[in-house]
Amino acid sequence: APPPVSAAAAPASQPAREPPRFSLVVLPFSNLSGDPSQDYFADGITENLTTDLSRARGMFVIARNTSFTYKGKSVDAKAIGAELNVRYVLEGSVQRDQNRVRVNAQLIDTATGTHIWADRFDEDRADLFKLQDEIVARLTNGLGYELNKAETERSLNERSRNPDSVDLELRGSAILHQSAAGSDRDKVAQARALFQEALKLDPDNLDALLHNAWTDFQDVAYGRADPAVDQKQRCMDLLDRVLSIDPDFAQAYAAKAMLLMVTRRTAEAVGLAAKAIALDANDPTGYGALAWAQTLTGHDQEALANLDKAVSLSPRDPSLGFWLYLRGGALVDLKRYDEAIAAEQAAIGAQFTGWPAYLTLAVAYSIKGDQDQAAAALAEVRKINPDLSIRSLHESIDLPEVYWDGLRKAGLPEG
Questions:
Q1: What is the 3-state secondary structure (H, E, C) of 204-225?
Q2: Which of 14, 69, 234, 339 is the most exposed place for a label (fewest CB within 10 A)?
Q3: pLDDT at 148
């Protein structure tokens, strides 16, 4: 994999580097059905291809969240190669006609702009994942890459075989990706309803189980869990169900690690996040989860390195604001307060505008001795979460001791 880039820097500012031999980005496939409402289906093909390719050891695959920033844009393969530091671009189109799916795919060398492989695939909708496996196999053959079939065959053996359940899951995923990292309560609820419908048709639909768990985690993390439902336990049960079906599902380990961190089981979270990375070294979620756990346990330099790695895998990711927020927390613990303040301001500028970023700002300002700025940051916290206190925060998450000192100096109530 390429060396990490600075989490606070734009990708275009990086010096030219030689891309890894087997590095690529899967651009959003075009929807040729003539019906814009079918975009979610083409997006689902793109996302699943990215996931399948990322599991192949030795490949460097740009994450889905960055690739989708190019959706609907006229792009130049050479420019993308330079911006993302990849050797290849995979692009294509999807045409769905009732129960048939046709996919055209082509692989482009970003150094020369030439097409080095192209193919067309036709399959019944019920065999959608067989089609995806065929694309992955032929693509890697075109690259001259010896792919271990066991690393990508989950789509054949363990993904849902029920096409209507798959369709509902893809629709829900499209909505979930529009939820501003889960901060949009209504979109999260809409997505959850579709995942639950998918699971009625196929209770073992792994992707629906995982994404349904993410909706519960997001409600818990944003402090809006339904008091009538134990969403923490429901989320844990869903993730355990995923891992009972597929013990090597990396994203489930990352999600479980993040859930453990908001239930004060941080030590357990470290191991789970590390396992997620071991299973899928191309998924930035694992690096973000591990970095979060490391910021909470005092391993701040390691956290900064993992945040840089996440950015290298997805430099345009909507989670960039969250990663910058984590970076600020590590810098506070390292007593680099000016850098921490800059990181939190950058996080807010990157649309991570929830109360945690303002909370870290309040800590950094108060320890630095700027009580007016600390009070202003804390006022933003209280505006978003008026019930937050030292006690409620302590009950939900482990924090380094410097946080408690800083929050008391800033004026956060005890209880």
A1: CCHHHHHHHHHHHHHHHHCCCC
A2: 69
A3: 45
The DSSP secondary structure of 129-165, one letter per residue, reads: HHHHHHHHHHHHHHHT----GGGTTHHHHTS---HHH
Q: Closest Cα to residue 229, out of 241, 239, 220?
A: 220
Give me the count of residues in the chain.
415
Identify whether the C-beta of residue 61 lies closer than 8 Å to the C-beta of residue 24. Answer: yes
**CA distance linking residue 116 with residue 93, whole number of Å:** 17
Q: Which two tokens stand for residue 167?
A: 């369709």
Helix (H, G, I), strand (E, B), or coil: what is residue 59? coil
Report d(CA 136, CA 21) in Å as an integer. 17
For 355, the token pair is: 């109360």
Nearest to 281 by CA among 53, 109, 49, 86: 53
Amino acid at position 180, single letter: A
As averages over each run of 10 residues, the pLDDT of the chain (415 residues) reads 31 58 90 89 87 80 93 90 92 85 88 87 74 72 54 49 85 86 87 97 94 94 87 97 94 97 94 95 94 96 96 89 95 96 94 88 96 96 90 91 94 92
pTM to 2 decimal places: 0.78
CA distance 166 to 180: 23
Token pair 């999260």 is found at 188
Backbone angles phi, psi at 184, to 5 degrees: -90, 100
| pLDDT tens track for 281-299 | 989 999 999 999 999 999 9
Instruction: Give the number of C-alpha atoms closer than 13 A to the C-alpha of residue 228, restricted to the C-beta side.
Output: 0
Structure confidence by residue, pLDDT tens digits, 175-202: 998 887 787 889 999 999 999 999 999 9
Running DSSP on this structure, what letter comes out for residue 7? Answer: T
